Amino acid sequence: MTTPSQIIALLNSLSLGDLDAIRAKLDEASEACGALGKDELSGLVAEARAAISAGDVKTYRKRIETAVARLGHLR
Fold this sequence. Notes:
The protein is 81% helix and 0% strand.
């Protein structure tokens, strides 16, 4: 069972550094997709980065899920 105190602790542990780390990983993934010649996937990851930066978690998740699914087909 999660208590309000645990949720507060979780929320308080988040920092701007966390979002910066996500952005950096998304930049890295976008560049890697571009290096593979997959510009469409690079664009999807860039859209995910823009969405998370704007606080649009729904679009962020959709773009990441789509990129991961399409990358899965490249294996």
